[in-house]
Amino acid sequence: MVRTRSAAAFDAPLRALGLEGRYHLHCDDVDGLPDFAGLLGAYPADTHVYVCGPEAMLTAVQAARDVLDRGTVFFERFAAVPGADGQARAPFRIALRSTGEEFEVPAENSILQVLRAAGRDVDYACSEGACGTCVTD
User: Fold this and answer.
1) How far apart are alpha carbons 107 and 27 in whole angstroms?
2) C-alpha distances in angstroms, 50 versus 14, 63, 99?
3) What domain range includes position 102?
4) So what's the pLDDT on residue 109?
5) Exposure of 80 in the CB half-sphere (CA atoms within 13 A)
């Protein structure tokens, strides 16, 4: 699913795999906005669905899943869910076990942002589409 066909980086290689109807590219500029309820409803009730993308799309998928009350949806987000617990985010402190350094994490920042701003070397790949790289214990 992409906004425009020109944004579909892997379309040609995927088509070349000959997936015989198991691959479909949805382009908003050609196909219109997706019908997530229709997409989710087309699969068995116990289907697992994996979704990654902008927050507006993830919210729409969750709303469709909630209406249908079926399936399990796994989300890959690029940021924390805003107000997921119904409460405003609050600043907090972290400590690096390796050095003992402590950092204040403001409500509007992530731990990754704070550590990078402090010049700490942190593995991450958010900008490369490999989410989960920066997850730590």
Assistant:
1) 36
2) 18, 15, 37
3) 84-137
4) 86
5) 17
Full-model pTM: 0.55
CB-based contacts of 21, cutoff 8 Å, min separation 6 = none
Residues 70 and 93 in one domain: no
- Is residue 32 left, alpha or beta, with left meaning phi > 0 and alpha meaning psi from -120 to 50? left
- Residue whose structure tokens are 């942002």: 113
The last residue of a domain, from among 76, 95, 113? 76
**Residue showing tokens 């991450």:** 124
Using the 3D structure, point to which of 76, 100, 129 is the last residue of a domain.
76
Q: Are residues 44 and 65 in the same domain?
A: yes
> What pLDDT, on a 0 to 100 scale, did the predictor assign at position 84?
58
Q: Identify the three-state secondary structure at position 105.
A: strand
CA neighbor of 65 nearest in space, from 102, 36, 94, 43: 36
Same domain flag for 17 and 72:
yes
Q: What are the pLDDT digits (tens) for 92-137? A: 999 998 899 999 999 888 888 899 999 998 877 665 555 566 665 5
